[in-house]
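Hey,
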Amino acid sequence: MDLIERLAEHKTLGTAPREELAWLAAHGTLRKLNAGGVLSHKGAPVEGLYIVLSGHVSLSVDRGSGPQKAIDWRAGDVTGVLPYSRLGSPPGDAVAEEPTEILALPRDELQALTRECFEVTRILVHIMLDRARLFTSGDLQNEKMISLGKLSAGLAHELNNPASAIERSAALLEDRLGEAEEATHALGVARLSDAQLAAVDAIRAACLAKAPLGVRSPVQQAEREEAIAGWLADHGLNTAGAEALADTQVTFEALDQLAAAVQGSALDAVLRWAAAGCAVRNLASEIQEAAMRVSGLVMAIKGFTHMDQAMVAEPVDLGLSLGNTVAVLKAKAGQKSAAVTIELEAGLPRVRGFAGELNQVWGNLIDNALDAIPDGGRVEVRANRGGQAVVVRVTDNGPGIPAPIRERIFDPFFTTKPMGQGTGLGLDIVRRLVRHNDGTIEVESQPGRTEFRVTLPIAEIHSEGVPR
């Protein structure tokens, strides 16, 4: 079968006029690839338009975890450079999976193709648009999965601390409740007078006093425990309770006042009871704080993913959006001892957009900033009104983006991170999402300061004054 007949049976181009198929046959070259043959190499210029007549070609892309198949072309498909396409080089190798025949039209013939073959050009332009949608959808899904992986790792790290605190405090609580019950029984046997009970209430109040801001260092705690043990020994009491008393806010003045009113075994029972009661309350408070931390994290994740909201444009509270994002990335900031600050203009209006997409924008920009800064570095997030828009700035004090590559950072698959640490999709996705939210993104960089600026439209206002 001659080449024109094979083109007439081609799934994609077969409906084109026969004279246009004849033009393709006259100006193209038939190429045959064995299994494993490379049609185009990653980074090398794509030489032309490829019409797959038989066989199977696949493109694999390395997004940081090894090559993964991204797209396939089989008999009846068209790939390579298409009319009006800006494709320069592929993001991966295109390799024949089996013996394959391809009609290759050189790149420099594309202009003549658009002039001589109107119907073929129309078909190929539609293919280019479909291909752009396919890669956009695939890249966005891949970036979402990468973001989900980072989110899961950060969430697991953040949840581990309060969960461990709850487990540890609950285990200690059982022991302290036993001690409190024994001390209460001993206190009842002591049959204290009203004056002595008043002294007991005073020591209890001293134990429950609000702790000052900060936490004692291990050395300070050991010194306090040793001093209390000395006081107990001086009064002929069991020093085993020194550790429990050291964890309270009781003062030596309060202890002296108690010792003046209560002596002997009754004094020992009172101190045990007071220490045990304070320990129970402190442990219950720690459990409550840890549970509130877990609840706060869940709310932050819910707000970050916006998983309970429909994908419709709506007024977005940037304070909440940015706050949730910083909460999600707190673990990563902690690993680098980094300071992440948020500064919002007073009365900042809401913006119009897709909340989940904007959270992904902030997540990528702040995550990249944390990657760029040194240990102990700083990331600043600021938002202020500018005309009929709101400008969000994410600034870091990292080494900056070198001028030669600054124009390329938004290109798909371009990354400055080491192999396995970056896909080159993050900023490309950010730009697409910003545009989808009717916004713009700019970058300025110099050593010690890099700033990404995202400008978003303010939500419209109803006559009643309610944003929409």
